[in-house]
Amino acid sequence: MTTASRGDVVAIACAEVFRGDGAILASPMAPMPALGAKLARAVFEPKLLMTDGVASLLNVHGQVEGQMRYSRVFDVVWGGRRHVMMGASQIDREGNQNISCIGPHDKPKVQLLGVRGAPGNTIHHTTSYYVGKHSKRVFVDAVDMVSGVGPCRGGLELRAIVTNLCVLDFTGPDQGASLQSLHPWATLEEVQAATGFPIYVPPSIAVSRGPTELEQRWLDHLDPERRVRATVEG
Amino acid sequence: MTLTPADFDLTVDIDHVMSRLRSGMTLGIGGWGSRRKPMALVHAIAESDLTDLTIVSFGGPDVGILCALGKVKKLVFGFVSLDLIPLEPHFRKARQSGTLAEVMELDEGMVVQGLRAAAWGLPFLPTRAGLGSGVMTTNPELKTTRCPYTDTELVAMPALSLDVALVHLNRCDRHGNGQSLGPDPYFDDLFCAAARETYVSTESLELDPDAPTSTHLVDRSTVTGVVHLPGGAGFTQCLPDYDRDMDQLKAYNATAKKGGLNVFLANHRCGRPA
Prior knowledge:
The complex is a heterodimer. By secondary structure, chain A is an alpha/beta fold. Chain A has one domain: Glutaconate Coenzyme A-transferase (3-Layer(aba) Sandwich), CATH 3.40.1080. Helices cover 24% and strands 21% of the residues of chain A. Chain A contains six helices and 13 strands. In chain A, the strands form four sheets. Chain A has a six-stranded mixed sheet, with helices on both faces. The two termini of chain A are 16 Å apart. By secondary structure, chain B is an alpha/beta fold. In chain B, 28% of the residues lie in helices and 23% in strands. The A-B interface holds A 54-56, 69-71, 74, 77-78, 98, 100-101, 105-120, 122-124, 145-149, 153-155 and B 32, 59, 77-81, 86-87, 91-92, 95-96, 98, 101, 105-110, 112, 127-135, 137-138, 183-187.
């Protein structure tokens, strides 16, 4: 797998988070998670439901197979039949996420989007995160405003956090962060230096895999100019 | 002799809508982000003397404009975004400068539950959304309740009762029957049902007879007045009639840094008749 580009490996890591999900709504919130979810559906998770980003469900051929207006999205969220892969301005040692604001809530230093659906998503259904640039700015000791609720606060399932360096989950001691796999180009020291809290490192460290031959063909089909994969530097 | 049934007509003009609004009211604004916002009505509020408003909105430039012009005392929101430009510049400015001090930041689903409770005349509706999050700590007035059957802890989302709802629809006839012809109706029907009075601005007073009945979003039992305002969603998206005006959206976005929101509003009618 030495021929796989960084973008290929990260796309596969995003695809892997959806493995085993079956017929639920996959909601990837950025181009890289979307590439991963589409690859997962094309290769190993054919029952996943995905929208066109507006209000229609599209099948694997791009044909409309159903309707998913916002009111239905909430029905699906509250019914637990969804796996969202959100972004994060901050993620902390408990796996809480923040997309609301940086600084005090009554007068933020930086106002972001607002909590959006993050509290409801995380408490009702499986959540993963994609962080394009793994850094201490994102991975902090405690988030400023808990938007996505981590496992300690009742979050249902934080399956994985895919970054440009590694894949983390929260299966470590005391529901803490744990290194699921390290991307081939990253070092453990690099990950630790870019994370503002300790990460449990299992005795044997897994290396994130590259695509199979079939997956590589799908990646090149779904991202023909490599625009999405090129967002991972190197 | 022909028999003519009794008839009625809910059409009004913008001035009439404005005459029904008072400072201090709670207004619900339909649409979502930069999609199908009643911008002509928002523009009229921007130019009015109204102040101290409480705004409930899936926020876009409606919220940004009203915040920038100091109309808002309290904002109830899950997000404020221009969609294709993710962050709303005037909302950010108001928050970061402290001029918008009072906010009720909620999970989007909690906003839905609050509107639904108001529409159904319930004091609250239970939800899991919000539990464990900063929503509960930044809104100390929010309380949880225990299920009487299972003892499960749930958020008791209070009704978000509106004095007036303002929405923009593709079609709405003189009787107040409103059609949404775009891909997503958002929660405009819920805003209408949660309000004491509702004003619908519309692209056309003629219903589309060929569209399926599922496009009939707003029923007239929840409509007080209808304003015929073609282009009334301004530079926001109003499919299938028109898409977002990206140039205008960018120009609006730039006014937060460069100043000139008032000039922008004066030059850009936001769909209002000149």
